[in-house]
Amino acid sequence: MAFIGLGFLTTDGGGGLNLGDMLVFVCAVSVALHIILINRLGHEADVSVLNFIQSGIIGLVALIASLIFEAPAMPSLPFDFATLLITSLLATVVAFNVQIYAQRFIPPSRVAVILTGEQIFAAVFGYLLLSEIFGPSQFIGAALIFAGIITSEYMSLRFKVLQPLYFILTSF
User: Model confidence over 98-151: pLDDT tens digits?
Assistant: First the structure.
C-alpha cells in the first residue's frame, strides 16, 4: 500500500515512470537493506565503529559518483562549508548513530514504518516552504502511505494481542 502511495506521491499522475521514479525505487530498496543490515550488525558491533564504517563507505561511493557524474568543485563561501559540515555531521553521522543505537531496541519493521513517513513530511514541507505542486495524485499518495503505516502498526498490535491466545488454544 505504501509502495503504491509512493508512486502516486512522486509521479505527476500521468502514469508514466521516469528516471527519478526509478531512483526513488532503488533508494527505497537501499533503505530496506540498510535497516536489515543494521538489525543484524547493530546488536553486536560498537555503534560508533559501525557508523564510522558505513559513513566512510557512503563518503567513498559519493566521491566516486561525483567524479563520474559531476564536475566537483570546492565550496568557495564560508556558508557553503558550514552547510557541508552540518549535513555531513548532523544529518549523516549523528542521525545514523541514533538509528544504529535505537535499532537495538526497536524491531526493523517498526523502523521501516517510522522511516516511511519521511516521504509524506518531505512532500508537505516542499509544498509549504518551496511552493511545490501538491495535486490530487500527491494527496492520494500521501493518504496511501499513511494508510500503509496505520495498517502495519494495527496488524503488528493485533498479532501481539492474539499471539498468546493462539498459543493457549493450540496447546491443547
Answer: 889 988 888 887 787 777 777 778 888 888 898 887 788 777 877 887 787 777
Secondary structure tally for the chain: helices H, strands E? 7, 0
DSSP state letter for 44: T
Average pLDDT over residues 150-172: 63
- Under 8 Å CB-to-CB from 86, ≥6 apart: which residues? none
- In eight-state DSSP terms, residue 77 is S
Cell numbers linked to 64: 566516486
Q: Which residue has the higher pLDDT, 166 or 139?
A: 139
Sign of the Cα pseudo-torsion (24, 27, 29, 32, in order): negative
Compute the distance between CA of residue 50 and CA of residue 55 in angstroms, rounded to an integer: 8
Q: Is the pTM of this model over 0.70?
A: no
90-116 in b/e form (b: 16+ CB < 10 A) is eebbeebbebbbebeeeebebbbbeeb
Q: CA-CA distance, 100 to 108, in Å (whole number)?
A: 11
What single-letter DSSP state applies at residue 92? I
